[in-house]
Amino acid sequence: MVMSNSLFSSSVLGTSVVSQVPENHILRPLEATDYRKGFMDCLSNLTVTGQVSEQMFQESFEEMQRTGCYFIIVVEDLSTGKIVASGTLLVEQKFLRECGRVGHIEDIVVAKGQQGKRFGKTIVKQLLEVANATGCYKTILDCNEDNVAFYEKCGMEKKSVQMALYAPNAVRK
């Protein structure tokens, strides 16, 4: 059973970033009702989402809510009621650095036709503020070479190398 409609408390959102979204838009935590507002359609602009039913969405939402370490923010276009951008911060508890925390930024996406409104940069800046508010000693992300300049504009720096191994039956795009 869902404890709240929001994935997490909006109290961790920085007001300076939230106020930067254009008129008729709102930046907020993912809500249990966002499946019907086109969240999966927005996410599909990033990569393969597969067939996700509303029930699957709800079950994943509730699991993420229970763990308390998922911070998915969305931008909703209030005039259409549709989700037009999203990003995720996953907070990992470590034993390193005196049991510190590391933030992992994932799934930054802006729907087609919504680019150029600075939603991507706004979401990344907001996720960095959430990482700080939740005590992360560093925040990292993986991206394609083509996106390095964008993330540098968001205050991040290029570091290390990413490695990946996909499961044999994984759907890739």
From TrEMBL:
Source lineage: Eukaryota, Fungi, Fungi incertae sedis, Zoopagomycota, Kickxellomycotina
GO BP, sorted A to Z: UDP-N-acetylglucosamine biosynthetic process
Protein name per the record: Glucosamine 6-phosphate N-acetyltransferase
A GO CC term attached to the entry: endoplasmic reticulum membrane
Pathway connected to this protein: Nucleotide-sugar biosynthesis; UDP-N-acetyl-alpha-D-glucosamine biosynthesis; N-acetyl-alpha-D-glucosamine 1-phosphate from alpha-D-glucosamine 6-phosphate (route I): step 1/2
Subunit structure: Homodimer.
Organism name: Coemansia brasiliensis
Stored PANTHER family: GLUCOSAMINE 6-PHOSPHATE N-ACETYLTRANSFERASE
Record EC number: 2.3.1.4
